[in-house]
Each structure stands twice: as C-alpha cells, then as structure tokens.
Amino acid sequence: MTHQLPVLPFSANDLAPAISSLTIGYHYGKHHQAYLNNLNNLIVGTPFENASLESIIAKAPAGPLFNNAAQVFNHTFYFEQFKAASDVKQHPENELLRAIEKEFGNYEKFVEAFSGAAASVFGSGWAWLVLDQEGNLLITQESNAGCPLAKKQKPLLTCDVWEHAYYLDYQNRRPDYIKAFWNIINWKVIENRFSK
Questions:
Q1: Domains in the chain, please, with CATH?
Q2: Are 95 and 194 in contact (CB under 8 A)?
C-alpha cells in the first residue's frame, strides 16, 4: 500500500489571514509530504507494508516508523478540520456543544482551556480535544509525533504547535496563531467526528 497525500478541503488562499497560502505551501506541500514519503519508504518489506495508518500507530514500536505514521495522521486530521472563516459557524452546536458545556462549563471556558494547553506545549507538539475510553471529553498535550490513537483515545480537534505550522505568519507569537486558529474551525467536521 502506498499512502497518499490527501486533497485539502479548501484552497491555499481560503484560510488567510489566519493561515497564509505561503504557510499552507510549506506545511502541507513540504512537511506533510515529507512525512508521507518517509512513511512509504519505511514500510517497504515490513509487516506494515499494507497496514492502515491507524494500525501502524497502534502497533509500531517507538521510532521513525511510528513518528512518520503519526505525523501523517496528525497533519491530515489537522488540515481536514479547516474552512474559510467566512463559511464557518462560530461555535459547535447540538450534542457536541452540550458535552463541552457539561465538561468545561461553557464554550468560552473550553476555548480558554484548549488555547492554554496549546500555548503551553513545550517545544514542538500538539494540543488535542479527545474522548477517552469512558466517553469523557479531555484536553491533552502531545510532544513531537504524539497521537491520541496510541492511547486508545478518539481525537476530535487538534492544534499543531510545531513552529512550521505558524512561524512564517506569526514568528514567535504562538498565542496569536492560536487565537486565529478558532476563526477557521469547521465545526461540522468536529461534530461529525464526535457523533461517529
């Protein structure tokens, strides 16, 4: 099996000014593609040659194979959740909103907690909204290629805080990137992930 770079659900200019087309070009076109190329090279002749990303993440030992598979998954998951700011709802609705309100008090407190988690990841990594095995909503942090699937958690939303995700647009101002991130979330995608 050869893993393929997924088609973006938006054009390169759609996310500006939150994320520029220049950043999309490097982040998706270079970094995401490099992880994919590395993964396809690493699986040749291994038991993972015909495995899904999810299977590789669940079963591969720590090291290059896991790291590249997880980064392909993480980046695909990240890019699939975006839409032009003019086309998005400002917050989730229905079951997801009720679950957020139950766990965090209200949507604004959730955004504050998630943004704080993203801002405080040390070095490179990810902030996630996940469902644990008991169905509870959690905000988690992962370093480097960490992925909730490896902990049997169901990911719903993620913020990439590797510098390549924001440095061309925001330089060292990670909190500004995180603030803009909320303007392009396609909550329909997150609601569908939650309901499945």
A1: 21-82 (1.10.287.990), 86-195 (3.55.40.20)
A2: yes
